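TEACHING EXERCISE
Course module: macromolecular assemblies
Task: Read the component lines below, then compare them to the predicted structure of the full complex.
Student: A.B.
Group: 4
Components provided:
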Amino acid sequence: MPANAFNGFTDYGIGIGLRVPHYDHILTKKPTVDWFEIISENFMVDGGRPLKILDQILEQYRVVQHGVSMYFGSSGKLNREHLKKLKRLVKRTNTPWLSDHLCWGSVDGTYTHDLLPMPYTFAAAKVTAQKIREARDFLEVPICVENVSSYAEFHVSEMAEWEFLNEVVERADCGILLDVNNIYVSSQNHNFNPLDYVNGVPVQRIAQIHIAGHSKYERFILDTHDHPVIDPVWKLYERAIQRAGKTATLLEWDDRIPAFDEVHGEALKANKFLQRVENETVHA
Amino acid sequence: MKLSTPKSQTKREFGELQKIMATAVMRPLTRGDKMQIKWIDGRPTKIVVKNFIKPNDRLTSFERLEIYNRQYWFRVRDCFYSDYPGLRAILGDKKFERLTDEYLTQNPSRSFTLRNLGSRLVKFLEANPKLIAPHSQLALDMARLEWAHIEAFDNEAVTPLQPDAILDSNPAKIQLQLQPHLTLLCLKNELDDFLIEVKKNSGLRNEASNAMEQNQRHKKISLSRRLKQREIFLAVHRHDDSVYYKRLERGQFLVLTALQRGVTLEKACAQLVKLKSPGDLGDIIKKWFSNWAALGWFCGIKQ
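Instructor-supplied answer key:
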């Protein structure tokens, strides 16, 4: 039974990101995996091996699309060509929901290919929410926005990041992909309590959770997705699912990618917390 | 004393903030891979940045923005490193990096996908041969070949024509369309074998969700001495989802490039009269077209 209006997929379980080094293993060994998350842009092509691999994966697994370049938070208009290509992919994958980041990254048609942080202002929230609505109407699929990790803050911000997230998703009436690793990274970089963030998001809108590893440097933390998940991030995950209930969970591992079994094993550690939450629910 | 309420950001100011930040993020790094200390108008960058980025207890505004500036360049450089291993092998790492920075400063990405980052490289090199001297022709040919490879990898494959589709047509009137993934190249060096060898030593690029990539430098691959100087004609295409470099005869190249330009079948083949003896011509053309049709290269016909 769905936990909330934006989370009709509580049975989705634990997935991992589909990455090139694992293709052969997945297609030959056919491991049991609840679902795969794909980076939409890697498959928004006109032909060739990427689409062939995707079709083979779709024959056996559930796939959810995750984007990196929609840039809902850019002040300019949405790229119509991008949307058309994305819609073709949505039809191919039948993704039950589609996520991208609450960030910006393009100006006047020039792309930085980065997930740049938003100024947390009402003007920015209004523009961003309008674009999310436009994208959803065009793509005809539920949209979730993901909080990004960040390394800078703006003087002009008028609210905390989670208040901004709330402002956007309420205005856009969309879901949240809550990345608890990103919350941790930003909390260390900007000196806030990450639990305030997790406790501050509208739980009824959390449709998916991301977990990942990062790299710690002397004066800041970088979101590198090249390590196992650390304990403080698991604690945030536990708190998030205590609030949201069973939620589709995905581990991201994007650099220095280990063998498939290691990545999948890391993701499955989430089961411990999901089980605990389920037991608590039963006892309650 | 009553404090005034801070003025809220307007939509116009929101856009202006993004423009100034994007300018800072995409500005070239210094030789030591740091953010430039002077802004575009000569003011200290730290003064400009301080106006819109907050410092924290560990980093100045400048240092916080510098993370994004470095991240941008590491990402696009890494993409170029992966997409152009052959060009890098010819130029060496230092020269390749200078070229990359120069090209991407003048041609920042205009596409949502990093796949298209090199789409204007050949034109850029034609206009800036000094950047690839003294191996200008070699480097230019390699850039053409590597872009053709990218196009062949994931461009559209249209349903091929059946081999007998042109049998009853009038050669003087029909134009044949070639697959979008097929590129025809005339190169001054035997770069196909060279690139295959180079690619054995190069890795794959990741386009990942929210991850910051580390600055990845690659070892210089000194293979350029093994290059054989000989003009070759190549068809770079995809078959069964793999990219191939197929050597062509001069005559084959002339016919196919003519067809790609939209010349009629008869005119395209008429070019062969100077190259082949008339007695063999019919059989040769039949054999070639049969081979090309089997590879699925013809995908449309205009009467």
